[in-house]
Design brief:
Layout: H1 2-21, H2 25-39, H3 46-64, H4 69-92, H5 98-122, H6 127-152, H7 167-174, H8 176-199, H9 213-217, H10 229-232, H11 239-247, H12 253-297
Helix pairs in contact: 3-4, 3-5, 4-8, 5-6, 5-8, 6-12, 8-12
Organism: Penicillium roqueforti (strain FM164)
Keywords: Lipid metabolism, Membrane, Phospholipid metabolism, Transferase, Transmembrane, Transmembrane helix
Biased composition (Polar residues): 18-27
Length: 298
């Protein structure tokens, strides 16, 4: 009886070995690749992790934005520089994804919009200009992304532009150097304006005016010229109070230089936004006309 059991077990092992030996090496490699693909987590790709760190740095810079220009500018600048690193990581690790592209674009748009909102509060008379820039930036990139995905297909990247549609857009998105310079200079211009709101009496005359007790109680929220130290920092010798005291004594030379050098490139970037929005509108209209023609033929 025991011998019969051993024979059955031996036959089962032989059949299992035969089944395994029938799988070719290529099929085994394919199975391993399929298993690896099933285990991939898009949200934990290296470029996406860099994108999450940009979101964290942006929130940190917004926290320091009203009263700590040095800290805010540093965090904001690091977040912007990481914008170039995530694209390099995506190509290096072969981890380019639609989610990563959208995350990158949304982070860029929200980061710039938050800074422009602060500038609107710092200079209310010019708020309509900053609001217009926010609207143009959001509308241009949303329409371009939507047109690319709806007309070009879900696998189409928004950075792959047909030169026959727009030579300017093709050069803007094809040359990594041009794209990096335009985006960096655009952010540098607004960072320079942000620093000037703390340091330039020419742009912010209220920096020269002493703040009375009555003004403290009616200070405009978000205005660097009218902080409320008493309500925020109980001790005038706290680190926050000292930083705020130094804030209004920033040297304006470098902010003026940064703003002046980056202004032409920033203006070109806004022109590109207009071209991008117009071309996306035309592309969507072409799709509408094609759909209407197809419906009439039915």
């Amino acid at each position: 009886m025991s011998a019969t059991r051993r024979q059955k077990a031996s036959l089962a092992e032989e059949s299992e070995d035969a089944g395994n030996s029938s799988v070719s090496p290529s099929e085994g490699a394919s199975a391993r690749e399929e298993t690896k693909e099933r285990k991939e987590n898009i949200f934990l790709f290296t470029p996406n992790l860099i994108g999450y760190s940009r979101v964290f740095l942006t929130f940190a810079s917004l926290y320091y934005m009203p009263l700590h220009p040095r800290t805010c500018s540093f965090l904001y600048t690091v977040s912007c520089l990481l914008d170039g690193l995530d694209g390099y990581a995506a190509r290096y690790f072969n981890q380019s994804t639609t989610f990563g592209a959208v995350l990158d674009m949304v982070t860029d748009r929200c980061t710039t919009a938050c800074l422009l909102v602060f500038l609107s509060s710092a200079w209310p008379r010019w708020a309509i200009i900053f609001q217009g820039l926010i609207s143009l930036d959001m509308a241009s990139h949303y329409m371009h992304m939507y047109a690319t995905l709806s007309m070009g297909g879900a696998s189409q990247s928004h950075k792959k532009v047909d030169p026959s549609r727009s030579w300017i857009m093709y050069q803007y998105y094809t040359s990594k150097l041009v794209l990096f310079i335009c985006c960096t200079a655009n952010e540098a211009f607004f960072i320079g304006l942000y620093l000037l709101s703390f340091s330039s009496p020419t742009l912010s005359p209220s920096l020269l005016q002493p703040i009375s007790d009555s003004q403290l109680s009616s200070a405009q929220p978000g205005s660097p010229a009218h902080p409320e130290p008493a309500s925020l920092f109980a001790s005038p010798w706290s680190a926050g109070a000292l930083e705020m005291a130094r804030a209004n004594k920033l040297e304006s030379t470098w902010p003026w230089i940064i703003t002046g050098i980056s202004f032409p490139i920033m203006a070109f970037k806004q022109f590109v936004n207009v071209v991008q929005m117009v071309n996306a509108s035309k592309w969507l209209a072409e799709g509408d006309l094609a759909a209407r023609r197809a419906n009439r033929k039915k």
